[in-house]
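Could you join me in thinking about how sequence relates to backbone shape in a protein? Label the sequence line and the structure token line clearly, so we can match residues to local backbone shapes. Once you have written the record down, we can walk along the chain together.
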Amino acid sequence: MDTAFVTGGTGFVGANLVRLLLEKGLRVRALVRQGSDRANLDGLDVETVKGGVLDQDALRAGCAGARYVFHVAADYRIWVPDPAEMRRVNVDGSVNVVRAAAAAGAERVVYCSSVAAIMPPHGRTPVDETSRYPGVDAVPGDYKKSKYLAELAVLEFAAQGAPVVAVNPAAPIGPYDRKPTPTGKILVDFLNGRMPSYIDTGLNVVHVRDVALGHWLAAQKGRVGERYILGGENLTFKGILDILSEVSGRPAPRFKTPYAVAYGFAAVDTAVSRLTGSEPRAPLDAVRMAKHYMWYDSGKAARELGYAPAPARQALADAVAWFKANGYVRDAA
């Protein structure tokens, strides 16, 4: 029986990937940080290795004998009080995982990057993997910078012969989003009536199970040194809210907040957070990102991997059902 080592298995994408790998008949080993919430692994036949991506001994133990290594762990926050900490986890941690996997002789290493590492379109025409930032200074926000630098570092290992493939998920939606992620928090706020207005922007919504399957397909068919966008459906933010309204029965907000107003509020909110250390309700980086339609083309993954994602409506409906069933919505019946 082949072994797969998964970092980030207790998280959102990782939990769905772990389940998929078990369904595929693999022995799964997961890296688990001390004190992390293990609820996403409850009841699963998974071996755990205690430690984080900065723990070299734990990574060596996790990679030992693994045919496949899936590096999914990441610090995914739009705002952080200490950007250097995020960079250590997302960049240095990724280098550590790939180095350990290569040293252990893994057949394939799949690195979970993000569309954050791909320069978004200036208009509404979706971009593909060839859309690249000219340098880190052009990348907006601490999270995007960290994912951009991490991907560069990881693919440099591929250029040196390591069996690394990168996948770039868009905005995953679906079950096991326990924290929740920044995208999941949008859904939770909507379901709890905490979204009086919206911004004119766009997202690519993809079912988290399709993202998990994309990881597996990349391990089987992906070309070393390549990156593959794992997207779903390109929608305006208003379109997403309208679908949420249909699947949840909640009314969608009708008022559109002008970008300048949203930017001004976020600037003040984020400045206050820098002083207090508390998380802002509207991070300035999130508003800056919203200036672009974050629309992406998954054609390369479809052609080379056989990737075929479900409609966004299914992803949103499954996410709503999971959040309601798990106590995230105040009056869920």
About this structure: The chain is about 45% helix and 15% strand. Residues 66 and 101 are 8 Å apart (CA to CA).
